[in-house]
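ENTRY TYPE: protein
WANTED: fold as tokens:
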Amino acid sequence: MSKILAAGLLLILSSEIWAQTPIVVSKLTGAITFDGIPDEEAWLDIPELEMTMYSPVYGNKQTEKATIKIAYDDEYFYLSAILRYKSHDEIRAVGKKRDYAEPYTDWLGFILDTFNDRQNGVSFWTNPNGLRTDGTVMNDLAYSGSDINWSWNTFWDVKTDKGDSQWTTEFRVPFSSLRFQTVKGKTIMGITICQYNAATSSMYTFPPVEPIVSSAYWKPSMTASIEFSGLNPKKPVYVTPYATGGIGMENELNEAGTDYKMNFTPKYDAGFDVKYSITNNLTADLTVNTDFAQVEADDQKINLSKYSLYFPEKRSFFQEKSDIFSFSFLGDNNLFYSRQIGIYNASPVRIYGGMRMTGRINKWDVGFLDMQTAATAESPGENFGVLRTKRTVFNENSYAGAMLTSRVGMDGTYNLAYGLDGQFRLIGDDYLTVKWAQTFENDMPNKPVDMAPTRLLLNWEHRNQKGLGYDFVYTWSGKQFNPGIGFEELQNYHGLRSMVQYGWFPEEKKPILYQRVYLTIANIWNTVTMSQETFKGNLSWYIEAKKGNYGSSGIYWTQDDITDTLYIAAGQAYIPPGRFRFANMSVLYGTSSSHDLSAYFMISAGKYYDGWNYSFSVFPTLNIGTSLSTSLTYYLDYVNFPSRSMKFTNHIVGLKGTMTLTTKTSLSAYIQYNTAVNKALTNIRFRFNPREGNDFYLVYDEGLNTRLTSEIPHLPFSSGRTILAKYTYTFRF
């Protein structure tokens, strides 16, 4: 083992540190009118940046050349563009809503690696309608499904103008909204500029980015270095008070228990947030009486497995700079899961307030969070704390870090955790990830050398979309490992997972853009008995066409040992203890997003424990003009256990609609129906957002019972509703 570790260390130390000569960004010598039309004289002397095709054929030049330039002054970073088309019919302008992020429209945007650490970045995007969308990327996009956060917001602006066969734009991002480091008067960042044409499903980038890995244009390690001189932005203080008011109505049983009565409760509240840039690379946030009245409802789900369901964080305060607080054990498993704060048993808990500090101190990325919640009938008031640090080591794509978390109840209970981790780029696209964590809590024996409260992950992967790729994982989760503010899909297990894939890009003249075949095998054992609990295998094929259509098919086989009765689908059925072997297959097909109507479908069928399972899902989206978008989600699950005369059929239907008359106003509705809980849930939100930090929301929520006779006394049609208005206004000092 020591020889293997020594060899690995030698590979790390021998890795070459990537370097490139930075592009010196031009400083504007004259005034510009910020109107989305880069026609001022100050733009004329700024050099153009040449775009190169990313897909469908890497390396091709633009037939209709775009003129893209970057510049800056003492306060702002600017990007301007003139985007040309063969005809007006090729321009796709769909969506005006703030933070819209769908592939049905033309896009122009850029990723800034502000610390030039080749790992993290912030991004800014717009379309021909002039909407504003921003987000963050972390971990050099190792996992495209989780390493992009579209809910991050900051202060910036963009303007656009549409012509007959072109559209133009100007981005303006205050340096005070960016975190960066300056050394001897010089500031180095990384940038990737992306242009997407929906009509042709084509993507262009600067600098050229070869699609050797999935979504490679998002990776901060692929950015071009750019250099600024003399940056010394102001450090404003943003104070954002809010006020809410409305009414809550809830149907409750009367004292006799014979009927339901609607109770009315006025709702009103107030609080504020403060944001201050301590330095150019360190920001502090203070929140008092934190409120999330405007947050969209969670998606309805049905659980057919023994793994815990994961619901993503949607609250903006916890989404900002969430990358620094990530300590992922792959999948949704994490040492820190912010939904543990302010939510208890799926019900909101008042957050009195707290603070967060994020940024960089010397070579260390630092994140600190502390929040205090109120006591409830079910839970004492609790304090939640997180400290996260990490820094680049050996080469630009390697880091080492640590995390501490605490959950302390006002009744004396506590849960503490620490974690140590590192990711090391060895040779080429080979990465080694090591993570170790332990938890300590009251009434439990705490032994630092004990594996019972320990979590371990070893992961060796070859990140490559073209040619051979592989991913080998060993993981351990001890029987006493319990991250108080983390998330674990499964407890008390250790296992191995291996994945081998091969991908290729067919010839340029072929209609197929990309194909991949991959084999995954996983084995899981119990950490106490060391007996095998689960074996899984999957052989799949993925194909993507140059016109944007895509599909996949796979065969899955499973052996699962159930030691205790497993209840599934909200108690609609159960799996008895025993050993089960079963196999199924699935097929997925998606249409190109370049059309007004697009959809994807998925079908799976086969054996399921001691029975059968058939599942079908469809997700169509229809865009009507530039202002109206609708989408449907439909899940059908049919489960039958003939030997036990047990079966059920479950439906989940979700309908979303968004109307955006301007880039400042939006009306959205989300209606869901789940037969497992016999309820229809409605969430309607109106938003007026004249500028960043200034918002008015009007929110309507209601739950409707769909089986009124399932209980005695009969359930009311409405279980309750809330109508709430919220207003925030940001003052800058």
The chain is about 5% helix and 55% strand. The longest strand covers residues 260-279. The two ends are 58 Å apart (CA to CA). Confidence is low (pLDDT under 50) at residues 1-19.
